[in-house]
Amino acid sequence: MRSSNHLIGMVNFLTFLLSIPILGGGIWLSSRANSTDCLRFLQWPLIVIGISIMVVSLAGFAGACYRNKFLMWLYLVAMLLIIAALIGFIIFAYAVTDKGSGRTVLNRGYLDYYLQDYSGWLKDRVSDDGYWGKISSCIRDSGACRKIGRNFNGVPESADMFFQRSLSPVESGCCKPPSDCGYAYGNETFWTQGGGLVGANPDCMLWNNEQSMLCYQCSACKAGILGSLKKSWRKVSVINIVVLIILVIFYVIAYAAYRNVKRIDNDEPAGEARMTKSHPSHFHL
After folding, report:
1. Residue 71 in 3-state DSSP?
2. What is the mean pLDDT of the chain?
3. Alpha carbon distance 196, 56 (integer Å)
4. Quick check: 75 and 262 in contact, CB under 8 A?
5. Residue 57 contacts by C-beta under 8 Å, 6 or more apart in sequence?
């Protein structure tokens, strides 16, 4: 029984350590929610799952140390629910970020983003006028477009240099007009109409060189937020999948050890058949 308790205790300790990357992923999403992605509810399920794993692991560890079968049983039940919740979160994250990506632009190092390329619940939430007001204010306050400027030895970046840059989805969608508008480059956030007609894209009329306006009301900016969310969620989901696989393995080991503890408490030696135990021999030496 002592070896089984030690095994359960070790598994609980390792499970506690596994909660750290999940909690870290939630905190990382939270930091991006305040600066880049500007969507402040997506990180909470991960943070709750990470804290739950920590608490349940400590309960299981205490149960193993003090040979408390109730705490061990509570650990197994609660961890099963947590694993189910983590699976649900991973499926949800992939489902809502399944469609949409940036489009390549001829002779450009960056991608352009279009809202019509995205669909589903997340698009509807980001596109909601009331919700978008908060998101656009967050982007403006984060200074994402102010940080896009570059200069070399005091010389501003040229158009050719800017066109070869790899911009983030938010920078591409919110800080410059769409490429098909035909605007001429002045600097990273200042563009003027070229000699030809402005493109048919509705965002072309929404572009404003006023630094508090830019393309914050453009559909391209909303698409950029969706593109940024997709990248963030996919990175976190990869970590969650690895943690989930290890959690399931640890859960199976803990369950087997718990069954062994119960068998020993019931005086059922490993390998002894239940039929033998229910009909014991009449001869005892």
Report:
1. helix
2. 83
3. 65
4. no
5. 12, 13, 15, 16, 19, 75
CA–CA distances in Å: residue 67 to residues 4, 13, 208, 254: 10, 16, 68, 14
Q: What is the dihedral of CA 95, 100, 101, 105, to 10 degrees?
A: 170
Q: What pLDDT is stored for residue 170 in this prediction?
A: 93
Give the pLDDT score at 283. 39
48-57, 118-127, 190-199: which range is least confident on average? 190-199
Check whether 269 has a pLDDT greater than 80: no
Q: What is the mean pLDDT of residues 154-158?
A: 86
62 in Cβ contact with 71 (< 8 Å): yes
Burial class from Cβ neighbours inside 10 Å (0-12, 13-18, 19+) for residue 176 reads buried
Structure tokens at 100: 């949409």
Residue pair 26/240 in contact (Cβ under 8 Å)? The answer is no
